[in-house]
């Protein structure tokens, strides 16, 4: 069994503007933690929840968090495989334990340890929100990336047949959400998550109305979903998809 992707984070220099953007676009509910950070309940009844907060001195970005049993041991393995430490393991007393590294291709990846009380993090509540149901890690060397994440998290990574680029499906085999990784045809490496939408075109148009820039789509992948991508007003790359269109 691999390690599950259980949380996403969206950051930028003006987090309250991001909150307004994503709640207006996807129908998400926010819970202010009182620590300059808002927890996201997507209210989709599936997928994973996340958070929105300030980027501080770092660039804006979308980050995934992976659940592990031992933060120190996992961080040590990541560093041994070529990662760099961003945040040493620490605990918010009685709440959560966290750590973060940057992989060899520049992707920041968060780690979440077991909750102090042994409980599970709240899942998305039932509702009309759009769910975060896919993650994506894109960089210049897909083979090397796949080897890194197989060794670190035990993920099953297979080629996606018929894709126009070198693209792999990622199965964590551990709950949470699955995802993909590959080599982008142009531009820098990036990491993001995808929201499942019943109407990709309409959601993309609404994103543009709210100040986003379309990067791709909507396009239907051979044998796969309809997808689109946009850049939010802070520069974060975000994906949309609809499974089995047509």
Keywords:
alpha+beta; eight-stranded mixed beta sheet; 16 strands; globular
TL;DR?
The chain is an alpha+beta fold and 246 residues long. The protein is built from four helices and 16 strands. The strands form two sheets. The chain has an eight-stranded mixed β-sheet with strand order 2-3-4-1-5-8-7-6, covered by helices on one side. It has an eight-stranded mixed β-sheet with strand order 10-11-12-9-13-16-15-14, with helices on one face.
Structure explained in plain terms:
The protein is of the alpha+beta class. It is built from four helices and 16 strands. It has an eight-stranded mixed sheet, with helices on one face. Strands 10-11-12-9-13-16-15-14 form an eight-stranded mixed sheet, with helices on one face. The chain starts with a strand and ends with a strand. The model has no long low-confidence stretch (mean pLDDT 92).
Write the layout of secondary structure elements.
Elements: E1 5-12, H1 15-26, E2 29-32, E3 38-41, E4 49-54, E5 61-67, H2 71-80, E6 84-92, E7 96-102, E8 108-112, E9 132-138, H3 142-153, E10 156-159, E11 167-171, E12 179-182, E13 190-196, H4 200-209, E14 213-220, E15 226-231, E16 237-242
Parallel strand pairs: 1-4, 5-8, 9-12, 13-16
Antiparallel strand pairs: 1-5, 2-3, 3-4, 6-7, 7-8, 9-13, 10-11, 11-12, 14-15, 15-16
């Amino acid at each position: 069994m691999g390690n599950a992707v259980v949380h996403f984070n969206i950051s930028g220099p003006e987090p309250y503007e991001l909150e307004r953007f994503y709640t207006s676009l996807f129908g998400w509910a926010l819970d202010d933690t009182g620590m300059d950070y808002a927890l996201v309940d997507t209210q989709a009844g599936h997928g994973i929840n996340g958070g929105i907060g300030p980027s501080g001195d770092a660039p804006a970005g979308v980050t995934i968090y992976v659940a592990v049993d031992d933060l120190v041991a996992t961080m040590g393995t990541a560093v041994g495989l070529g990662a760099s430490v961003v945040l040493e393991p620490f605990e918010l007393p009685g709440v959560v334990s966290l750590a973060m590294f940057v992989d060899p291709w520049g992707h920041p990846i968060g780690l979440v340890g077991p909750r102090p009380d042994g409980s599970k993090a709240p899942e998305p509540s039932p509702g009309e929100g759009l769910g975060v149901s896919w993650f994506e890690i894109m960089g210049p060397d897909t083979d090397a990336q796949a080897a890194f994440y197989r060794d670190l998290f035990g993920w099953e990574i297979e080629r996606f047949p018929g894709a126009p680029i070198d693209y792999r499906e990622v199965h964590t085999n551990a709950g949470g959400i699955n995802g993909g990784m590959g080599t982008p045809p142009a531009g820098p490496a990036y990491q993001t998550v995808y929201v499942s939408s019943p109407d990709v075109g309409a959601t993309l148009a609404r994103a543009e109305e709210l100040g986003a820039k379309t990067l791709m789509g909507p396009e239907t992948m051979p044998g796969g979903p309809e997808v689109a991508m946009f850049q939010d007003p802070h520069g974060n790359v975000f994906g949309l998809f609809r499974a089995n269109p047509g």
